[in-house]
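Q: Second attempt. The first request was missing the SMILES, so the protein and zinc ion are both included now.
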Amino acid sequence: MLDAEIIDTLIRRARDARSFSYAPYSNFHVGAALLCIDGSIYSGCNVENAAYSPGNCAERTAVFKAVSEGHTKFKAIAIVGEGDVTPPCGVCRQVLREFVVPQDFQVILAGHGSAYKIKSLEELLPLSFGPDNLI
Ligand SMILES: [Zn+2]
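A: Got both inputs this time. The predicted holo structure:
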């Protein structure tokens, strides 16, 4: 389980990343902070595009930053969007699934206040398809 200090740190880092969100079309600003097994943290924001589909979610930005620097084992992610809770989209759930044990990986859903919810990836993506299905 995650201790309160790391939860606070991840939420703060997600809020910081959210401030860089490039969302001129939706005005839906999201930040995420991904905790690696070794304790390092990678953050990301959503990046929209005038052609729409090339845009990327905050969660995947964080994952791709981490993977591109050699990190492929993750423990948790905090997500801060609009309102109280911004759950990850289906694509981001699947991308996270590639690198984590769904029962163990924690998704911290935070907003602008002090309240947050924690769900496992297993809860958010039950009966998921992952690398072990191909073996
Ligand atoms: Zn997404």
